Amino acid sequence: MKLETEPFKKQVVLEPQALQHPAVAETASPKVGNFRWRICALLFFATTINYIDRQVLGILAPQLQADMGWTEVEYGYIVTAFQFAYALGFLLMGHIMDRFGTKKGFSFAIVLWSLAAMLHAVARSVFGFGLARFGLGVGEAGNFPAAIKTVSEWFPKKERSFAIGIFNSGANIGAILAPLSVPFIALYWGWQWAFIITGALGFVWLAFWLMTYKKPQEHPRLSPQELAYIQSDVQEHEEKIPWARLLPYRQTWAFALAKFMTDPVWWFYLYWLPKYLNTTHGLTLDKIGLPLVAIYIFSDLGSIAGGWLSSFLIRKGWSINLARKFTMLVCALAVIPIFFASITSSLWVAVALISLATAAHQGWSANLFTLVSDLFPRQAVGSVVGIGGMAGAVGGMVISTAVGYILSLTGSYVSVFIIASMAYLLALVLIQLLAPKLEPVQARA
User: Fold this and answer.
1) Do the domain assignments include residue 315?
2) CB atoms within 10 A of CB 269
3) Within a domain: residue 8?
4) Nearest to 243 by CA among 439, 105, 444, 379
C-alpha cells in the first residue's frame, strides 16, 4: 500500500452539482433522514464538557493564586503541564481512534479526563495541580481526533464543515457555562466542588454515548436512504495507515503548522483572560462571569458561521479549495483588531475586540479541522488530527510559559496581543504555500 496525491481537479465529483448518487438528489427531501445530526449533537455535548473541565482552573486562578501564593511563572508551569500532556495525548489518542474506533476510543478518553478533572480537588501544591493537569491533558486530547473522525464517517464532505462548526461550538458553550457555574459553586461550596461536579459530567455523557453510537453501516436506526447519502462521496479504501507514514506529506504539515501557530492564541484566551480581566480591569470572581459569557457567546456564533459559510459557498458552486481558504481569510482578517484590546482602558471595548477575535478563531478552527477530512481518507483522519493537535499543544506549551515570563518581567499584555493579531494570516500563508490546491491524499493498495 502506498499514499498518492491525486490532482485536485479530480475532486469535482464532490461538488454538489456533480454528485449523481440517487440519494444526493434527495438532499432536500425528508426521506433522507437526519439521524446523523443526533450523532453531531453527542459530539457537541462532549466538546462542551471538555471545555467546561479545562476552563475551571482558569476561572479559579486569581483565587487559587492568592490562596496558595503562586507566582505568574508557577501558574505558567501548571498550564504548561496540561499543554505538554495534551501534545503527547494527541499522538496517542489519534492512533487509538484509528486503531480501536471512535466508540471505544472516545469512551476511554472521557473516562480518563473526567477522573483527572475531579482529582484537582485533592491537589494542594504546584506539583499536585500540575499532575492533575497532566492527566486532564492526556484525556482531553482524545476529544477532537474522535469527533473529527466521527464526522468523516457520518457526514458527506459537503456537510462536514457545518457539522464540525456545530460540534466545535460546544467549546464556546462550555466556556460560557463555566464562568456562570464555577464561581457560584466555588463561592458557596468551595473550589474543590467546582472540580468534582464538573468532572462528573463526563460520566453522564458516557452513558448516552454507549447507548447511541454505532458506525453508520451498523446502526439499526439509520435509514437506507440516509446511509446512501452519507456514503455518497467517492468511496475510499479502508487500509490502515500508520501515522508515521503521513509525516512526509505537505498536507500534513500544512495542518500541523497552522495548528502550531493559531492554537496557542486560543489557549491564551482560555487560561489568561480571567487573569487579564482581573489585573487590567479589576474584575473579581463574582463579577467576571458576564464579560466572559459575552466573549464566548460571540465565539459560539463564529464557530457556526464559519462552518456554515464555507459549506454555503460550496453549495453555490465554489471549489472546496476556494471556499475553505476564503472563509479562513475572512476569519484571519477579523482577528487583527485584537491588538487594540491591550491599550484600551474601556472594559467593554476590550470585551468587544476579544469577542470578535474569539469568534474568528472558532470560525477558522471549524474550517481548519475540515481540511483534514478534505485532504485525507477516513482511516487517516484521527492520526492527522492527532499530529496537528500535538503541534498546536506544543505551541500552547510555548506560549503558556512565555506569557508567564512576559507578565513577570513587563506586567503588560501588549506583546501577547500583537502575536495574536498576526498569527492567523501567517498560518494561512503557510497553508497556501504547502497546499495551494488542497490536493487530497488517497490510499491505494
Assistant:
1) yes
2) 23
3) no
4) 379
Q: Residue 323, by phi and psi: left (phi above 0), alpha (psi -120 to 50) or beta? A: alpha
Q: Residue 71: CB partners within 8 Å, gap ≥ 6?
A: 408
Q: What is the model's pLDDT at position 333?
A: 96
Would you tell me how many other CB atoms lie within 10 Å of the CB of residue 301?
A: 16
Residue 108: give the domain boundaries: 14-22+32-232+242-444
Question: Is there a domain that residue 132 lies in?
Answer: yes
- The answer to whether residues 171 and 307 touch, using CB atoms and an 8 Å cutoff, is no
Number of domains in the chain: 1
Among 307, 268, 288, CA closest to 421: 268
More confident residue, 265 or 232: 265
The residue to which cell 493559531 is assigned: 262
pLDDT confidence tier of residue 435, bands split at 50, 70 and 90: very high
| Residues present in the chain in total | 445
- For residue range 27-67, list pLDDT tens digits in order: 334 467 888 899 999 999 999 999 899 889 888 888 888 88
Q: Which residue has the cell 459537503?
A: 158
Give me the phi and psi of 413, to 5 degrees please. -95, 5
Specify the CATH number for the domain of residue 159. 1.20.1250.20
Compute how many other C-beta atoms are within 10 angstroms of the C-beta atom of residue 207. 9
- Torsion angles phi and psi, residue 235, rounded to 5: -70, 140
Joined grid coordinates for residue 323: 471556499
362 within domain boundaries? yes
Condensed to tens digits (0 to 9), the pLDDT of residues 289-343 reads 788 888 888 887 888 898 889 989 988 889 989 999 999 999 999 999 998 988 8
